[in-house]
Amino acid sequence: MKARAFSYARPSTIEEALDAFASAGDDASYIAGGQSLVPALALRLQAPSLLIDLAHIPSLRGVELKDGWLRIGALTRHCEALADPLIARHAPLFSAAAPFVAHPAIRNKGTLGGSLALADPASEFPAMALAMGAELEIVGPRGARRVPADDYFVDLFQTAIEPGELLVAIHVPAVAERHRWAFDELARRRGDYALVGGGILAEMTGDRVDHIRIVFFSVGSTPVRARQAEAALTGRSLIPAAVADAQATIDADLAPPDDEQVPAAMRLHLARVLLGRLLGRIAEPA
Ligand code: FAD
User: Fold this and answer.
1) Considering only CA atoms, which residue is closest to atom 47 of ligand 1?
2) How far is the CA of 129 from the centre of ligand 1 (A)?
C-alpha cells in the first residue's frame, strides 16, 4: 500500500512549525525520524493532508548540561543517545536502553522526541524518561510548559501533548556519582519489542536505599512505576529479604494485559525475575 497524497512543509523555526500545523486546520502530522510515522502512512493508519518535517529546526537539537539538568533536544537520534558522553554520564538509562531499541538502521533515524511523543507502552525511552524523573518541554499555540514524566503518560499512545503542540526537549535531572541505575529487558529475540522491560534509578547510602524509582514497560497501556516495590525498599538495606518483599508487591503494582501470546501471569513472573536482576545490579556499586 502507498501513503495517501500529502503536502509537505519544511519549517526552520518552532513558530513556523506551529503556524503550519494551524494552517492545516489540525489535519497535519509532525514528522521527526519517520520510523513509526512512515509505516503508519504506508498502511494508511494515518492520512494527514500535511506533513511538517521537524528535521531543519535547530532549536530541537543539541544536548546541554545546565543548572543540574541535562537538556536533550527532541531531534536527538537513538544512535546519539548511544554515543553522547553527556547522555552516558547524566542520563545513563537512555544510553543503556538504546542498544535494545530496534536495529541500527532505525536507531540512525529515530529520535528521542519521536519515541516520547509516540509513547508506545512497549518502548524503552519513554519508560526510562519516567525512571529518571524527566520533564518534557512542550510548546504550542498557547505557549510553553514543562510536564513531569509522572503526569505526561495519559493512556495508550496518549500523552500530555495536545494536537498541534511540539515536544521540544527532554530535561533530565542530571544523574550523579551518588546514583545507581540498571536497565534490562526480556525479549524473544534481540531487537524485538520486550515482553517485559524495566529500569531503576536509586540514591543509596552504602547498601541502604534512600530513594528509588522503578519503572516497567510492556506491562500495560503506559510505562508503569512500581510504587509499592519502591516503598518496600525505601530506607532498607538491599538484602535478599528486602528484594523478596519488593518482588512480592509486583502483582499489586502491575496489571499487564492478558493475551494468548503472553498471558498476564507470564508477564508478572518475568517482571519479578527482572526486578530481582536489576536490584542485584544496583546492590553492587559500579
Ligand atoms: P516519527 O515516526 O517521525 O513520529 C512518531 C510520532 O511522533 C508521530 O505521530 C509524530 O507526529 C510524532 N512526533 C515526532 N516528533 C515529535 C515532536 N518533537 N513533537 C511532537 N510530536 C512528534 N521503538 C522502541 O522503542 N523499541 C523498539 O524495539 C523498536 N523497534 C522498532 C522496530 C521497527 C522495525 C521499527 C520500524 C520501529 C521500531 N521502533 C522501536 C520505533 C522507533 O524507535 C521509532 O523511530 C520511534 O519510536 C519514533 O521516533 P521517530 O523520530 O522515528 O518518530
Assistant:
1) 115
2) 15
Structural domain tally of the chain? 3
| Residues 65, 47 share a domain | no
Q: Which atom of ligand 1 is nearest to the CA of 32?
A: 3
Q: How far is the CA of 272 from the centre of ligand 1 (A)?
A: 28
Whose CA is closest to atom 11 on ligand 1? 30
Domain assignment present for residue 1? The answer is: no
183 and 257: one domain?
A: yes
Q: Which pTM does this prediction carry?
A: 0.97
Q: Do 105 and 15 fall into the same domain? A: no
Contact yes or no for 125/115 (Cβ under 8 A): yes
Is 104 part of any domain?
yes
Domain residue limits at 243: 179-283
44 and 86 co-located in one domain: no
- Give the domain CATH number at 71: 3.30.465.10
Q: Which pairs with CB-CB distance under 8 Å and at least 24 residues apart come from 253-261?
A: 253/224, 253/225, 253/226, 253/227, 253/228, 253/229, 254/216, 254/219, 254/220, 254/224, 254/226, 255/219, 255/220, 256/196, 256/218, 256/219, 256/220, 257/220
33 found inside a domain: yes
pLDDT digits (tens, 9 = 90+) for 234-273: 999 999 999 999 999 999 999 999 888 899 999 999 999 9
Rounded-to-integer distance, Cα 49 and Cα 15, Å:
20
**234 and 196 belong to one structural domain:** yes
Q: What is the pLDDT of residues 158-201, one digit of tens each?
A: 999 999 999 999 999 999 888 999 999 999 887 788 999 999 99
Query: Closest Cα to atom 6, ligand 1: which residue?
Result: 118
For a pocket test of ligand 1, which of 35, 43, 192 has the largest count of ligand atoms closer than 8 A to its C-beta? 35
